[in-house]
Structures are given as C-alpha cells and as structure tokens.
Amino acid sequence: MINHNSCGLCRIDIENLSVKSGSDILIDDINISLHCGELTALIGKNGAGKTTLLKAILGERQYSGKITFVSHTDGKIKRPSIGYVPQYMTFDKSTPVSVADFMIACKSNRPVWFGNKKEDIKKLEERLSALDCAHVINKRMGDLSGGELQRVMLTAALDPLPDLLILDEPVSGVDAAGLDLFYKTVTSIRDKYHISILLVSHDLGLIRKYADTVVLLDKTVVASGEIEDVFSTEAFKNAFGYLE
Q1: Residues near 124 by Cβ (< 8 Å), separated by ≥ 6?
Q2: Per-residue model confidence (pLDDT) at position 4
Q3: SS3 assignment for the chain
Q4: How far apart are the C-alpha atoms of 30 and 122, rounded to whole Å?
Q5: CA–CA separation, 244 vs 242, rounded Å?
Q6: What is the tens place of the pLDDT at every residue in 126-185?
Q7: Rounded to whole angstroms, how far apart are CA atoms 201 and 198?
C-alpha cells in the first residue's frame, strides 16, 4: 500500500502565477501541476525565474494568480508542510558547532551549551543513518564536505516529513559520486513516502535518469511533460544550445 503523506496532499496546482519587481516581470502566467509521488525537475538558463517561482511557492514572494494545494479527496488544503534545501548554506565555518548541536538546536529551545540529551542524539543518529551520513554526527559543520552538508540539510528538511520537498540546486560543488548518491536518496524518499519533490538542477543527465517530469522555464513555461519530449523541443535547444 502507498504510504500517503500525513495531510493527504495529492497535487499542487499553480495557475496564472506571475511575479513582478516594480515594472519588471520576473515570471509570467505560470501554469503547472506538481503531483505527489513524482519528482519534477525545474530547468532553464540563468535568470529564467526558477528561484523566483520557488520563493512564490514558499510564500516568500508576493504573486498574482493561484497556488492550490489539493487533497486526495479533491478538497483544498490551506497549507501543507514544505521542506526546503537551499543551494547554499551561509555560516561561519570556524564556529565550533557540531552537526548534532546544529540539528538538535533546530528542533529545540534548549541552549546548545547545556549539552544534548541522549535520547535526542539517538533519534538524530537514526535520521542521519537513513541518509547514509550518521558518521558526521560529531563533525563540526565547517568541516563537512559538500556532499555531507547537503545530506545534513536534507535530513533537516525531512523532519517533520513534508508533503512537498523543494530542492534549489542542492548539489552545487558536490563530486560525481556525491551527486549520484544524493539523487538516489531523493528518489528513494519519493518512493517510500509518496511526497511531491520539486528540484531545480542543471544536471541534465541526472534529471534524465531520476526525474519523472520536467518543466522548462524562461520567464514562463515554454515546455513541460515527459523528459524526452521536453529535451527534444526547440525551446530546449534555444535554452541550452543543443538537443539532448
């Protein structure tokens, strides 16, 4: 039996969505649906409006149009749980904060200098183990590799388990082995929990390997659907200079 997410989210319908900054139109008339149990890749050249769309979905950008969260019974959900992994995490790498300190502080009002409870450490180890990174629990945040940091951030984004997981170029600076591991982890999460995943990425080969559908953006949606169909369009060639 499919393990549907906790609030019963089925899909996210985005209709006629536009974002402006003064007189500049950042994105215009976006119409897409994101379905649970699917990994949707959002692609486009730099400045196409990908991050602007993500911020609108996250509620961090004012927009015109509609974003509707639809349940499995075709009802409307006011606001589902959304997990988010940004492209970069900016922090002082010299700060002596361990992964355990950081992760537990995100979930508690308890000051770090009081130490961490054994039961909290055990739960965190289990969560990190699920993403193959339990070995970093006592590492300083500033000593993590790019791949390790991304898996720690993904672990944080999955607690509590979201109905929609948004990943904004989450593997920048990660080596090839780390890239493949990250995508395998993300697709495993999709399959196990039947959540909707929206991924911004420039890794077209890995998108072809792991994504279910793709949306090509250039201020508006210029192509969307199955991977091969989008990759063979003139719009794709105009964006990337070649056909896949």
Answers
A1: 100, 103, 104, 137
A2: 46
A3: CCCCCCCCEEEEEEEEEEEEECCEEEEEEEEEEEECCCEEEEECCCCCCHHHHHHHHHCCCCCEEEEEEEECCCCEECCCCEEEECCCCCCCCCCCCEHHHHHHHHHCCCCHHHCCCHHHHHHHHHHHHHCCCHHHCCCEHHHCCHHHHHHHHHHHHCCCCCCEEEEECCCCCCCHHHHHHHHHHHHHHHHHHCCEEEEECCCHHHHHHHCCEEEEECCCEEEEECHHHHHCCHHHHHHHCCCC
A4: 44
A5: 7
A6: 889 888 889 999 999 999 888 788 888 888 898 888 989 999 987 766 777 777 888 888
A7: 10
Q: Is the pLDDT of residue 1 over 60?
A: no
Phi then psi for residue 161, to 5 deg, are -60, 120
Q: Beta partners for 39?
A: 197
- Cβ(214)–Cβ(55) under 8 Å? no
For 160, list phi and psi in degrees, rounded to 5: -75, 165
Length of the chain (residues): 244
